[in-house]
Design brief:
With about 475 residues, this protein is of the alpha/beta class. The chain has helices at about 1-5, 10-20, 25-40, 50-65, 110-115, 160-165, 180-190, 220-230, 265-275, 280-295, 305-330, 340-345, 350-375, 395-400, 405-410, 440-455; strands spanning about 45-50, 75-80, 120-125, 170-175, 190-195, 215-220, 260-265, 295-300, 380, 415-420, 430-435.
């Protein structure tokens, strides 16, 4: 019964709660019990707020019984990557630098989730400051992949994706600077959305790279991602990067109909510049065939070289990373893990002219990306390879490996990762769906239609 309740999606649970057929207290207790029994296998949580969750669930139940739910999230348990500030609850970013950090104020996203009546279960493991990892010399051990505990859940929203896949929580938030929502979503077989830059406020989210950080949702299905996005999207005058745009009804966009959509595939990237494995390409081609069967058309498109996107992203990111952490690096470098320390130092070696030229190149690349997207409705490509072993990696790998995700941080475009099957080891494949700026409805419509056409959401990892 615990697993049966814990594996409910947000959409399923909210319908049952609204009909008073499910108690938020029962649902919350099922999640807490599952965390207690099984998270010692995954280390997906660094802080569990059981007492608070039980109190919030009881309050939600009373309010719903009296006057009905405030929102589709009323009474729904959720968790947060441990870089989202939570008033009175330790927020560490997995770093010894913040071992005793207890914020006085909630992040904007936490305020929105609380106002919607959500139930906070706790904080999820991340890579140190959402950047350095996986690391074993930081405040907590790294999270593990629920499909195979010897494998990585990727990063940096590692605990967030693992917790959703394992049935510990139906909802969570992560952050994405070069793939840190989408890569863990891919590795753990969940849905994860990097929204358009500025759509979701980052106020109270510990920064990694000011100009490319995005906050966004992870959940088991695209439908659930849409529910979460509805709650957290919107203008925030306290975030200088926040966009003042109208917020559509994301759930209403999930029509299941993708007939007539034109899908662009960056064939040069996939064939020459950053070719995936044969198995990953086969899974990707199979996903494209599903969309063709649903009435969409697929054609090749040409984007600027992936190396240019990677170079611009990395120069900007490590320069801004150094700016954020330089004072602590000088005063107490021993409190950083080795992986993050290496990468911060690298940022201190970038010349001002290189940073400015990277920002100029970013503008050119972003314009080119938007020009291509004016000719198609969506781009599609794999998110990443299936999960590899959880083991230390050279910090320099950040600079040497091409990325199929970073380009869309450079451009700021919405990008969704969904599960697209399983490899011979039983680990998830992933499909990345990229849209025009602020066209989350079309991205979510495509992800939802694909999930409903395929059986992948019926399979869960076994712990």
């Amino acid at each position: 019964m615990v697993s049966e309740l814990a594996f409910l999606t947000i959409a399923q649970a909210s319908r049952l709660i609204a009909k008073r057929e499910l108690s938020p207290v029962e649902l919350t207790e099922a999640c807490l019990r599952r965390i207690e029994m099984l998270d010692n296998q995954l280390d997906s949580f660094v802080t569990v707020t059981a007492g608070r969750a039980q109190a919030e669930a009881k309050a939600a139940e009373a309010a719903i019984m009296a006057s009905g739910p405030l929102s589709r999230l009323h009474g729904i348990p959720y968790c947060l990557k441990d870089i989202f500030e939570t008033a009175g609850i330790r927020t560490t970013a997995m770093s010894k630098q913040l071992a005793d950090n207890v914020p006085a104020r909630d992040s904007h996203c936490q305020e929105k989730l609380a106002a919607a009546g959500g139930v906070l279960l706790g904080k999820n493991a991340t890579w140190e400051f959402a950047h350095g990892g996986p690391s074993w010399d930081v405040l907590f051990p790294p999270a593990r992949n629920p499909w195979d505990r010897t494998c990585s859940p990727a990063g940096s929203s590692s605990g967030s994706a693992a917790a959703v896949a394992a049935g510990f929580a139906p909802a969570t938030l992560g952050s994405d600077t070069g793939g840190s929502i989408r890569s863990p979503a891919a590795a753990c077989g969940v849905a994860g959305l990097k929204p358009t830059y500025g759509l979701v406020s980052r106020r109270g989210v510990l920064p990694n790279c000011f100009s490319q950080d995005h906050a966004g949702p992870l959940a088991w299905t695209t439908e659930d991602v849409a529910v979460l996005l509805q709650t957290i999207a919107g203008h925030d005058p306290e975030d200088p990067g926040s966009a003042d745009v109208a917020i559509p009804d994301y759930a209403a966009a999930l029509t299941g109909n993708v007939k007539g959509l034109v899908i662009g595939v960056p064939t040069t990237w996939l064939e020459k510049e950053a070719p995936p494995s044969a198995a990953t390409m086969a899974a990707f081609e199979a996903a494209l065939d599903v969309f063709r069967g649903l009435g969409a058309s697929v054609r090749p498109v040409t984007l600027p070289p992936i190396e240019q996107f990677d170079d611009a992203k990395k120069i900007i990111a490590i320069s801004e990373l150094f700016t954020i952490h330089a004072a602590d690096l000088r005063k107490r470098p021993e409190l950083f893990g080795a992986s993050l320390r290496y990468r911060i130092i690298a940022g201190g070696l970038v010349r001002a002219e290189d940073y400015i030229q990277a920002m100029r190149l970013r503008t050119e690349l972003a314009r080119s990306l938007q020009a291509v997207l004016s000719t198609v409705d969506l781009l599609m490509l794999p998110t990443s390879e299936p999960a590899g072993k959880l083991e230390p990696v050279l910090p320099s790998s950040l600079f040497t490996r091409p990325s199929l995700t970073a380009a869309f941080n450079v451009g700021g475009n919405p990008a969704l990762s969904v599960c697209s099957g399983f490899d011979a080891r039983g680990l998830p494949f992933s499909l990345q769906i990229v849209g025009r700026l602020f066209d989350e409805p079309t991205v979510l419509r495509a992800g939802d239609a694909y999930e409903k056409a395929m059986p992948w959401r019926d399979k869960r990892p076994v712990l």
